Amino acid sequence: MNDTYDVMIIGAGAAGLTAGIYASRARLSTLILNDGAIGGQMVLTNEVANYPGVETTNGYVLANTMKKQAKSFGCKIKSNAKIARYHLEGDVKSVELEDGRTFSAKTVILTPGGRPRSLGIPGEDTFKGTGISYCATCDGDFFRDKEIAVIGGGNSALEEAVTLTNFASKVTIVHQFDHFQAFEHAVEEARKNLKIEFVMESEPREFSGNGSLQSLTVEHLPTGEKKNIAVDGTFIFIGYLPNTEPFKGLVELNERNEFVVDGEMKTSIPGVFAAGDCINKRYRQITTATAEGTVAALSASEYLRQM
Amino acid sequence: MKMLQTEIQEIESADELQKIISENDNVMVCCGRMGPMCIPVYDAMEELEEERENVKFYSMAFDNPEAHVIRNAPEAQGFMGLPFTMYYKNGKVANATSSIQSMDQITSVLDEHFN
């Protein structure tokens, strides 16, 4: 099968769905190819209370509304699309899926998003779900009156550590630097909580246990000294990575592997735009992603007019 | 009363779950909440429901008192991450997983036990 579209969007998070809404509403034939959950990181948000015009909602509902909006304007969405190869140069761009299908378009909007960073140390996969978690809201109550660790030093780590003290008897924050990257109010909140202890300038090296997590080994970076911390659980909040690996060597990336874009969301390749958590920017919010998706779609539309 | 906002059919009682697993060879049940670890699993199930006619896909609310049959199942002992996902083959638990699972991880279990 070989379909040619005006706009092909890679990824169906907030940026991709918004680009799909704008492009299809402009009567451009639009296809979204997505692998993973529709809504991207947006669906990982329990409560969305700062999306203008919507008093409060959750990420799943917001993502589904965006999906319905895009479809209502004629946007096609193909899920579970595992892309094997990208051909982004020239007037007609194309992608080849692992199942052999090929799709082409005159413009491409890249919105592959990001994913939570994992530690990649021994035991992390083994104890996922039996002690290791990435969501305090989801799993906090499994650790009532237990001793746990939180890995990270950003806003998520410190805020979630404070939340977890509602359940756990003790929370040890392990952070690689001697200071936190979190906002000062989050640091203060954590420091004044008597249930929280700090292990600074240290990195996790191994998780161990018998059936469930029992111990976390950390290394003190200045001295190289290792010690074991007895824990029943560990929550990991160490940031996000952009999903840009397939584009290395194809599209210009910066030192953090984010797409380099200008104010019109143009990448280094004519006719290829990017938006969302995968671009060079500081703030990653649903509102910023939707704004960039809008700009990318309008820029793609302008590009098509000038072709 | 239904508690989950997903397209997956929700089981509301232990008796209903028992009836479903006794009447169907291959059943996958995701027992969770509307949280960030659970939603991607429901989404994957929605996708798979269209592709895998030999498997019945259901959700069950973790906070539904009737979900004790899953929460307290021997196969879920030691689970400390939502959702608890159970795979029933001919009425018996063939596999169980805790916490978020990717599409690849889910299809791997389905391929191993339900093909």
Helices and strands in order:
The complex is a heterodimer of chains A (307) and B (115).
Chain A: E1 2-10, H1 14-25, E2 30-33, H2 59-72, E3 76-78, E4 83-87, E5 93-97, E6 102-110, E7 114-116, E8 132-133, H3 136-139, E9 147-151, H4 155-164, E10 170-174, H5 184-191, E11 196-199, E12 202-210, E13 212-220, E14 225-230, E15 233-236, E16 240-242, E17 272-274, H6 286-306
Parallel strand pairs in A: 1-2, 1-6, 2-3, 6-17, 8-15, 9-10, 9-15, 10-11
Antiparallel strand pairs in A: 4-5, 5-6, 7-16, 12-13, 13-14
Chain B: E1 9-11, H1 14-23, E2 26-32, H2 39-51, E3 56-61, H3 68-71, E4 84-89, E5 92-98, H4 103-114
Parallel strand pairs in B: 1-3, 2-3
Antiparallel strand pairs in B: 2-4, 4-5
Account of the protein in words:
The complex is a heterodimer of chains A (307) and B (115). Chain A folds into 2 domains: 2-116 and 240-306, 3-Layer(bba) Sandwich (FAD/NAD(P)-binding domain); 132-236, 3-Layer(bba) Sandwich (FAD/NAD(P)-binding domain). Chain A has 307 residues and is an alpha/beta fold. In chain A, 22% of the residues lie in helices and 29% in strands. Chain A has helices spanning 14-25, 59-72, 136-139, 155-164, 184-191, 286-306; strands spanning 2-10, 30-33, 76-78, 83-87, 93-97, 102-110, 114-116, 132-133, 147-151, 170-174, 196-199, 202-210, 212-220, 225-230, 233-236, 240-242, 272-274. In chain A, a hairpin with a 5-residue loop joins β4 (83-87) and β5 (93-97). Chain B has a single domain (9-114), classed as Glutaredoxin (3-Layer(aba) Sandwich), CATH 3.40.30. Chain B is globular. The N and C termini of chain B lie far apart (33 Å). Chain A binds chain B through residues 35-39, 43-46, 58-61, 79-80, 128-135, 137-139, 142-143, 211-212, 233, and chain B through 5-6, 33-40, 43-44, 47, 78-82, 97-100, 103.
Q: Main traits of this protein?
A:
heterodimer, A: FAD/NAD(P)-binding domain, elongated, B: 115 residues, alpha/beta, Glutaredoxin, 4 helices, globular
